[in-house]
Specification:
The protein is an alpha+beta fold. It has one helix and ten strands. The protein has a single domain, classed as Jelly Rolls, CATH 2.60.120. The longest helix is centred in the first third of the chain and has 25 residues.
């Protein structure tokens, strides 16, 4: 069983579109309820308060957590990976276990990106919800933790915060 759909598969674009549409719908809902003009962007490191390149931080087996600010959200759909060292990623929403992704297959895909083949509706983190990420990796001789792996997903935030962190 494959956890991810290669970007060469037409189902990849369908998954990405499904998640983008859900992010846009959320932005419209926030605007309708609170009157705040919202933006939807591809998820970038700045959105998660990271200053590094497009790389999910390796945390020596500990979970990194990202709590969404009010009116902000993250919608995940998959991963880009050029790393042969990352084995698995554990995802949680607060204390709720969402899944253990075996991510090694992504580096074998032609474009080295894949959409999650499971339920992407569970990969939505809205106001005050927490995304927890734990990475399991094996390292070669360098022992570095700077891995080339990043999310495919979307960030929703007020228009006034498009180039700022959306996590507390």
């Amino acid at each position: 069983m494959s956890y991810f759909i290669s970007s060469t598969n037409p189902a990849f674009n369908a998954k990405v579109q499904e998640v983008y549409d859900a992010a846009v719908e959320h932005a419209k809902t926030v605007f309708a309820q609170r009157g705040i003009k919202m933006a939807v962007e591809r998820l970038r490191p700045v959105h998660l308060g990271l200053t590094s390149t497009y790389s999910i931080p390796y945390n020596s087996g500990n979970a990194s957590t990202y709590k969404m600010q009010t009116d902000c959200a993250v919608f995940l759909v998959g991963l880009y990976s050029n790393s042969t060292n990352i084995k698995e990623i554990t995802l949680k929403k607060g204390q709720e276990f969402l899944g253990l992704w075996s991510v090694r297959e992504i580096v074998k895909f032609q474009e080295q990106q894949g959409a999650y083949a499971g339920n992407v509706k569970a990969l939505v983190f809205k106001s005050q919800e927490t995304l927890s990420v734990q990475i399991v990796a094996t390292y070669g001789q360098t022992g570095t933790a700077n891995e080339d792996i990043w999310w495919i997903g979307f960030a929703v935030m007020p228009e006034s915060g498009v180039n700022a962190s959306i996590v507390a």
